[in-house]
Amino acid sequence: MEFSDVYIESLVQPRDELLMEMETYAKENHVPIMQLPAIDALNQLLRIQKPSSILEIGTAIGYSALRMSLALPNCKIVTIERDLERVEMAKHFLSRSQAGNRITVIEGDALEVDVEKIQSTFDAIFIDAAKGQYQRFFEKYSPLVPSGGILYIDNMYMHGLSDLDIKEVPRRKRTMIRNLKNFTDWIMNHPDYDSTFFPIGDGLLICLKR
């Protein structure tokens, strides 16, 4: 860990017992959740934006959804997860927080969910799911965001693999990394979005719809 990362980690705000329990569960069960400095940064950006509704692609155990809900007491969140076991754990954890009452968990593959049955529009979308499918997620759900809305996308570094030449990436992950790099090039040059990369956590991409 770089010195700057250590310093940033030292500035992370304390969490309540439920969040700490979720962090422990995620670590012990190898469930990927957003890094603490990154979720703090995301929440601060959301506080500035003040969305009234957020769509999350990739619930996992509900950690980021709950963190966003706690940061935005007037916001409703819809979150999609395809793993049934994680859906059940998310519902378990969210039921133990008053902020969980504003979160709706949908079980299903985000690429197969009927968009018309979710909601007409969202002020923000947070994508943190299958990295090799980011462009497909973006193309399917970005129409739900009106002009002035924002899409937040995590794990753009992919634990450093995005920095490597594709030949240096483990063979089983090459397609995913190639897709992730192609998506990055595509969105950074998209005429309908102003996109900025934040080098925090595992890399956070922010796309403002024009």
Brief account:
Keywords: Magnesium, Metal-binding, Methyltransferase, S-adenosyl-L-methionine, Transferase, tRNA processing. This protein has 210 residues and is of the alpha/beta class. 37% of the residues lie in helices and 17% in strands.
Detailed description of the structure:
The structure is a single chain. This protein has 210 residues and is α/β, with parallel strands linked by helices. 37% of the residues lie in helices and 17% in strands. It has 7 helices and 7 strands, in the order αααβαβαββαβαββ. It has helices at 3-10, 17-28, 36-49, 63-71, 84-94, 134-141, 174-188; strands at 53-57, 76-81, 103-107, 124-127, 150-153, 193-198, 204-209. Strands 3-2-1-4-5-7-6 form a 7-stranded mixed β-sheet, with helices on both faces. Helix 4 (63-71) links the parallel strand 1 (53-57) and strand 2. Helix 3 (36-49) crosses helix 4. The N and C termini lie far apart (37 Å). One of its GO terms (biological process) is tRNA methylation. Keywords: Magnesium, Metal-binding, Methyltransferase, S-adenosyl-L-methionine, Transferase, tRNA processing. Catalyzes the methylation of 5-hydroxyuridine (ho5U) to form 5-methoxyuridine (mo5U) at position 34 in tRNAs.
Specify the CATH architecture.
3-Layer(aba) Sandwich
Which word captures the global form? globular
Full CATH superfamily name: Vaccinia Virus protein VP39
What CATH first level would be assigned? Alpha Beta
In the sheet with the most strands, the strands line up as 3-2-1-4-5-7-6
What is the helix/strand order? HHHEHEHEEHEHEE
The fold-level CATH name is: Rossmann fold
Radius of gyration: 16 Å
Average the pLDDT over all residues and give the rounded result.
89
